[in-house]
Target: Fe2OG dioxygenase domain-containing protein
Amino acid sequence: MSETLESAVFKPVQELAVDCNTPPERYIYTCSNEAIDVNPPVLDIPVIDLNSLQSSSPSADRELEKLRVSVTSCGCFQLIGHGMTSSFLDQVYSIGRDFFALPLQEKLKCFKTAENPQGYGNDSEHSEVLEWTDRLYLVTSPEDQIKFQAWPQSPAIFRELLQEYTEKIKLLNEVVLKVLSRSLNLKASCLLDQYGENAYMIARFNYYPACPRPDLTLGVKPHADATAITFLLQDKQVEGLQVLKDDQWFSVPTVPDALLVNIGDQVEIMSNGIYKSPVHRVVTNSERERMTVAMFCSPNSTRYIEPAEELISKTRPRLYKKVKNYFDVCFESYQQGKLPIEVAKEGCDEH
Ligand SMILES: O=C(O)CCC(=O)C(=O)O
Ligand SMILES: [Fe+2]
Model:
């Protein structure tokens, strides 16, 4: 490999975790006064069956109501009946697991750079509190944004499988946006029309090595996803995701073959805040590594999104302004030390 400046200072957490008794200072999460609770109560997240939602039987209405309640109360739901087989999801999962099991030299062939943030790496070049995780971050759609040079050559099936998964999630995302519209009493195409064509899809394989002190470090710090929708393929063996609800952390269980569907900031905006993008974080495990595959779906950066007209009224005024390229909003918010959703709210009545 040609060693870049970035890869020279890169410290994979995977390597750090070997023979580590205490995480280095930079990984100690000091941003909260409370200790990290690795075993909070379990969140009762409804399991939504897409087959049942799309059927013409009366159970479809019940399922739609369950979806509405679930998204209103926790901003996410567990989706089954999505049409992807268990063995296909296992294959998607294993291309990530196999990639992180490669020797470092091999993984570094996909190393991200300052010019191209896609690829393998973590945030160890940054100075803030670091997260106990390594990642493989790849734009998978639209085609002209894909940087295949950052995609692993090994395992050999990686590219074909991730592209197949992308196509399946693309279709699933459209269906989910339609059922979310219906659950808000909007016409089925309402959210999808705003979402538009040539949307962005990003795959992020999150690898969390076992950590000697889960009470001191986080796999991912508290955040809300900047997406429209996130689909998360969880680790079947090891849990770690937590969602903040009513100012308390809850752990998210893994449901076999379900995809966890997370409402992102951009659906929060389009729904005029009826659906909230949940704040979540990831805790580590002292015994076992964990890996997840997140698929982030967002409108194309040229697209404007705003609260649906039908959801604005005298009693429920418009809460967010019209925004374009939410990644720019995120950057602006980061510079101002605010949450992106707060920036989307500023001066909304002026637009
Ligand atoms: O790994 C997880 O459980 C969640 C990861 C996550 O929140 C993210 O990638 O945005
Ligand atoms: Fe997230």
